[in-house]
């Protein structure tokens, strides 16, 4: 009797344990079943299973979001080309245009006939014709003609043209006046004989000689002693001897951006090609032009390919040398550099064509594609290098002209051609719609900052009490230091304007109204990028160019 009572008392307790453990009732559970249950330490709690399910669902959601992000940037290769590659004249083309167009090819597809260097003579292989384009041929006129002569500078704000900076010098021996008028859209340069004027012409008269749209009636004379330094920095802000280009390795069967950016191994063939372009150096402690790579902490790889060519310093962002991130199909550590270059070189190992828009980027506007030609009898023997160029439709053509057929058997000649072509490609890309719009904004910001700075400094020289505490203007001179492209100058332009209007307490005058602009985030972001070269620093603009600046990451220079 006592034993039955104990069993009766035991049943609710065990049932209670079962309810706590499993979280649900067992209607037909007997005492023997309860006693036969495994020990608590061997059982897997139901709450853990639920937690694991929630974690699994969370990772599934993240994976779907990441997949959507990749799909937005992926260039889908046309299905027919995956199974049957397009052949023209028995050769597989290096580049194929995208399905929606928007790119030009050189040579065009219909000219890809016989690529054998032995069957047809080559034309266009004269390195004497490999001329590098000038970014701004008039940029150094002030330094060349005004620096050594006594001259005057005048400033004004035109109601329709905006800020104006006028420089005038008298060339006594030649009896002529040389004038430079800087406006938001461009700078005008002219030389006038003194015989054209009855008296010494005024600044307004000279400005109207260059541009009839000038409406100002009075210019303000600049009396700041260091004004020439600021003017030279503005005039030469587009002049740069530093260039950076991306290098991608495309292997056989790689049709997507993820495949190309995921290559980690460098074959001997690829290393030989890199040695043609330049030399491999250790980034740690490198003192030359670094092209945005980290030379202190190793955050952008251990080594890089650099070279000097006709007074230009070039840094190559080689994808296989940049950090590889496991589990990241987009390889953002690599794309943050190559995706922010304007021109990239693609080396093909195999006969898989490159699609012009396969790399999703707002900055990349031009690709040079190179493929090594194999010997017919011996595949290891080299018949030279075949070259093709593709760029967006709004990029004007640039030299040097490709030889016919576009094959190079001399490595030194290939180097001269590729380096000249890469430099000219970037300069030509600046004329594309997106870059020209940004360049105009950059110039406008710099000119506005220059005009305000010269005005404030001149007032300080004349003893204006409100300008007596102005600090040094070294920040403005930094506009031209370490220049690596107009995008860097754009960021510096915003920083300079913020520095001039707020840190220096200089009011901004627009249409006769004095306004103070609060310090923007442009300067702060640029300063952070210089401290940490591997940080992502997007440059925010208005809606018309926000899409372009969305991918701006690491354009800081050494």
Explain this structure to me?
The protein has 558 residues and is of the alpha+beta class. The strands form four sheets. Strands 2, 8, 9, 10, 11, 12, 14, 15 and 16 form a nine-stranded mixed beta sheet that branches. The chain has a five-stranded antiparallel beta sheet with strand order 6-5-4-3-7, sandwiched between helices. Strands 1-13 form a two-stranded parallel sheet. Helix 7 packs antiparallel against helix 12 and helix 12 packs parallel to helix 14. The protein is globular and about 80 Å long. 35% of the residues are buried.
Topology:
Blueprint: H1 2-22, H2 31-35, H3 46-73, H4 79-83, E1 95-96, E2 103-106, H5 141-146, E3 151-158, E4 162-171, E5 176-182, E6 187-193, H6 203-210, E7 220-221, H7 227-235, E8 242-251, H8 257-261, H9 268-277, E9 279-282, E10 303-309, E11 312-318, H10 332-338, E12 343-349, E13 354-355, E14 366-374, E15 382-392, E16 407-408, H11 411-429, H12 433-461, H13 474-477, H14 486-503, E17 508-510, E18 513-515, H15 521-531, H16 546-549
Parallel strand pairs: 1-13, 8-11, 8-12, 12-14
Antiparallel strand pairs: 2-15, 3-4, 3-7, 4-5, 5-6, 9-10, 10-11, 14-15, 15-16, 17-18
């Amino acid at each position: 009797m006592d034993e039955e009572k104990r069993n009766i008392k035991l049943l609710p307790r065990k049932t209670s344990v079962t309810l706590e453990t499993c979280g649900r009732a067992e209607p037909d559970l007997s005492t023997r079943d309860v006693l036969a249950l495994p020990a608590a330490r061997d059982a897997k709690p139901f709450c853990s299973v639920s937690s694991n399910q929630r974690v699994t669902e969370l990772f599934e959601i993240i994976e779907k979001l990441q997949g959507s992000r990749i799909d937005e940037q992926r260039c889908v290769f046309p299905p027919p080309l995956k199974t049957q590659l397009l052949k023209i004249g028995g050769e597989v083309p290096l580049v194929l245009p995208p399905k929606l167009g928007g790119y030009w090819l050189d040579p065009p597809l219909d000219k890809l006939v016989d690529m054998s260097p032995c069957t047809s003579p080559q034309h266009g292989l004269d390195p004497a014709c490999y001329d590098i384009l000038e970014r701004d041929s008039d940029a150094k006129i002030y330094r060349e003609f005004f620096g050594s002569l006594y001259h005057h500078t005048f400033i004004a704000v035109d109601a329709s043209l905006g800020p104006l900076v006028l420089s005038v010098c008298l060339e006594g021996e030649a009896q002529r006046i040389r004038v430079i008028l800087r406006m938001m859209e461009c700078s005008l340069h002219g030389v006038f004989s003194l015989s054209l004027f009855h008296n010494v012409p005024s600044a307004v008269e000279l400005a109207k000689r260059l541009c009839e749209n000038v409406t100002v009636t009075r210019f303000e004379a600049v009396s700041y002693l260091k004004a020439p330094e600021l003017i030279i920095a503005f005039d030469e802000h587009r002049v740069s001897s530093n260039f950076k280009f991306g290098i991608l390795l495309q292997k056989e069967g790689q049709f997507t951006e993820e495949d190309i950016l995921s290559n980690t191994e460098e074959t001997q063939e690829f290393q030989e090609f890199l040695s043609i372009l330049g030399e491999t150096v250790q980034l740690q402690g490198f003192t030359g032009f670094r092209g945005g790579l980290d030379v202190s902490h190793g955050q952008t790889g251990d080594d890089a390919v650099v070279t000097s060519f006709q007074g230009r310093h070039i840094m190559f962002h080689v994808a296989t040398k940049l950090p590889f991130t496991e589990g990241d199909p987009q390889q953002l550590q690599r794309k943050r550099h190559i995706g922010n270059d304007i021109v990239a070189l693609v080396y093909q190992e195999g006969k898989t064509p490159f699609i012009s828009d396969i790399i999703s980027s707002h900055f990349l506007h031009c690709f040079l594609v190179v493929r090594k030609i194999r010997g017919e009898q011996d595949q290891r023997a080299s018949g030279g290098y075949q070259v093709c160029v593709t760029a967006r439709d709004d990029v004007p053509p640039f030299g040097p002209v490709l030889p016919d057929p576009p094959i190079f058997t001399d490595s030194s000649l290939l180097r001269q051609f590729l380096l000249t072509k890469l430099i000219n490609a970037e300069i030509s890309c600046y004329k594309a719609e997106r870059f020209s719009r940004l360049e105009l904004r950059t110039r406008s910001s710099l000119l506005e900052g220059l005009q305000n700075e010269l005005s404030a400094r001149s007032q300080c020289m004349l003893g204006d009490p409100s300008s007596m505490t102005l600090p040094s203007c070294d920040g403005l001179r930094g506009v031209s230091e370490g220049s690596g492209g107009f995008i860097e100058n754009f960021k510096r332009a915003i920083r300079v304007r913020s520095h001039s209007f707020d840190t220096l307490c200089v009011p901004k005058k627009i249409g006769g109204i004095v306004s103070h602009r609060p310090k923007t985030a442009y300067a702060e972001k640029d300063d952070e990028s210089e401290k940490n070269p591997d940080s992502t620093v997007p440059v925010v603009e208005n809606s018309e160019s926000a899409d372009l600046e969305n991918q701006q990451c690491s354009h800081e220079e050494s």
